[in-house]
Design brief:
The chain is α/β, with parallel strands linked by helices. The chain has 3 domains: 12-21 and 205-302, 4-hydroxy-3-methylbut-2-enyl diphosphate reductase, catalytic domain (Cobalt-precorrin-4 Transmethylase, domain 1); 23-105 and 309-322, Rossmann fold, CATH 3.40.50.11270; 108-191, Cobalt-precorrin-4 Transmethylase, domain 1, CATH 3.40.1010. The protein is 35% helix and 17% strand. It is built from 10 helices and 13 strands. It has a 6-stranded parallel sheet with strand order 10-9-11-1-12-13, with helices on both faces. Strand 12 (297-302), helix 10 (314-322) and strand 13 form a beta-alpha-beta unit. It is flat.
């Protein structure tokens, strides 16, 4: 089927695939769920386990208590570190309070942390492409604050200063726009021709896959809706990617109730995707809402198939095995719709 044409007056939805939960988010959310099942409430979680309101509210209703810092956790209690990772200083603060920790940091974020440590030990200036204030950036920066400076966007490149232009490397936040990151790298390399790349791509596979899927469907869409929360970096990027790829309009929504009927006026084709921390139930609700407006014809636009899964955090996995519990995880199923 040609994505660029739609039968006149035929309303349809193009549903991006992959979308929604990535392996790191799945691992982190299930870690909190299993901790609640095994230990009972309360289980403390530093920051939001993942950046999604629905997920946080659902876990809070089960007994998870979300805090900003470890000093809000009672001495000796149990705390889960979010998927975004934490700095060595946070680990030290938790140890000082004798907290039982479950580290749900995404393994792909952990990889970036290890890169920062290794390059710092070799005395490189490290240019961390990412957004100031994001938990992931704070965690990575904390691994080597004397060697790292954050580069927020291509426009920041001119203000970067380094000790030795021949000993500079870049790394990145895992949830960025691929295109914008590469533009930042291009500009950095103009200033520092010997700029070194990380040993492997830092932007995670799931972020890239979701952006590729949106790029494919966006040119055929009058409107693209991204389901995701405002503090979800990868969700916000999907809105931008859709516009850059040719969608006439693009909006981010947390849930179906946020769809403005005015957005649908004169629209024939709606694209739908979701950020990497969004459960599929929220996408189902959006499709139901669109169907109520006449957009009942849903076709999946698949650009990749993801089957990666990460094992649970070792602290939790070990405990569950010792107690005879199940450290495995059930698959989180996507919608079954007609692919194109």
């Amino acid at each position: 089927m040609n994505l660029d044409t739609a039968t006149p007056a035929r309303k349809r939805v193009l549903l991006a695939a992959p979308r929604g939960y990535c392996a790191g988010v799945d691992r982190a959310v299930v870690a909190v769920e299993k901790a609640l099942d095994h230990y009972g409430a309360p289980v403390y979680v530093r920051k939001e386990i993942v950046h999604n309101k629905h997920v946080v509210e659902t876990l809070a209703a089960r007994g998870a208590i979300f805090v900003d810092e470890t000093d809000e956790v009672p001495v000796g209690a149990r705390v889960v570190f979010s998927a975004h990772g934490v700095s060595p200083a946070v680990h030290a603060a938790a140890a000082a309070r004798s907290l039982e920790t479950i580290d749900a940091t995404c393994p792909l974020v952990t990889k970036v942390h290890k890169e920062a440590v290794r390059f710092a030990s070799d005395d490189y200036d490290i240019l961390l492409i990412g957004h100031d204030g994001h938990e992931e950036v704070e965690g990575t920066y904390g691994e080597a604050p004397d060697h790292i400076q954050v580069v927020n966007s291509p426009d920041d490149v001119d203000s970067v200063t380094v000790r030795d232009p021949d000993k500079v490397v870049w790394i990145s936040q895992t949830t960025l726009s691929v295109d914008e990151t590469m533009e930042t790298v291009r500009r950095l390399r103009e200033r520092f021709p010997t700029l070194q790349d990380p040993p492997s791509d830092d932007i995670c596979y799931a972020t890239q896959n979701r952006q590729v899927a949106v790029k494919k469907l966006a040119p055929a869409c009058d409107l693209v809706l991204t389901v995701g929360s405002a503090n979800s970096s990868n969700s916000v990027r999907l809105v931008e990617v859709a516009l850059d790829a040719g969608a006439r309009s693009s909006y981010r929504i947390d849930k179906a109730a946020e769809i403005d009927p005015a957005w649908l006026e004169g629209v024939t084709t709606v694209g739908v995707t979701s950020g990497a921390s969004v459960p599929e139930i929220l996408v189902r609700d959006v499709l139901d809402a669109l169907a109520a407006h006449g957009f009942g014809d849903v076709e999946e636009v698949r650009t990749a198939t993801e089957d990666l899964m990460f094992s649970l955090p070792k602290e939790l996995r070990t405990t569950l095995k010792k107690s005879g519990g199940n450290p495995g995880r059930g698959a989180r199923r996507e919608l079954s719709v007609q692919p194109i």
